[in-house]
Amino acid sequence: MALNPIAIHIGGIQVHWYGIFIASAVMLAVYLSILEGKHHGIESDNIYDMILLALPTAVICARIYYVAFQWGYYQNHLDEIIRIWDGGIAIYGALIGSAIVVYLYCRNKFIPVWLMLDVIAPTVILGQAIGRWGNFMNQEAFGQITSLSFLNSLHLPHFIIQQMFIQGAYRQPTFLYESIWSLLGFVILMNLRHVPNFLKRGETTLLYIVWYAFGRFFVEGMRTDSLVVFYDIRVSQILSFILFFVAIILLIYRRRKYNDLPLYCKDKIVNI
Length: 272
Hints:
The protein is mainly alpha-helical and 272 residues long. The protein has ten helices and five strands. The strands form two sheets. The chain has a three-stranded antiparallel beta sheet with strand order 3-5-4. Strands 1-2 form a two-stranded antiparallel sheet.
């Protein structure tokens, strides 16, 4: 029996697990970003103000992105476009919208854009790891049909295996693969970022893009509910492929072109 996607009822309002996971991810990301920002002279008010702008923009852009590539369905169900609590937001849409807000905000406040991005990048991928459990509760972002014996061989808890019984068959837990990949990326980025005299400003962000895009490309190939364009080409795989190589090219280009890029961490490890 599938888990109930609704956590609690408050009066006539249904509070979905999806929203709880997303909200928890955002709060943790903001908290960690504030702690890290203090070491670089970024005031907590700047983080709060920026997130107040970035969060609604991210949600709107994530929904627009999803609806745009599912327009064949939504053009006949216009009343469902705003029903984000049922799922159906695309993380790449959220990242694009958020990146635009961060850029504009930092330029307006005279905060180095790359520095701000480096501060928040590891917390973003941690938020993505948490947010995937919202997909789990909604039984979405799942993979191809598999067997019960395969899921048991992964030594997964029973509640995960039970929740992976979708549309009459057991499914690959692609939400879990991506969540674990993102969590591992968070650990790696947090450690690399604080190695003295190692990463230049902007490189934490670019490494985040490389890491996430690489994992997402392969996980997306396993999913059966992907957004597609012509000839069933998966949108997220195309974007992941592009972002992966663009980020690598930028890493190499900036290292060779600019010798005076400031270091993210000098002399000693900064603990948060």
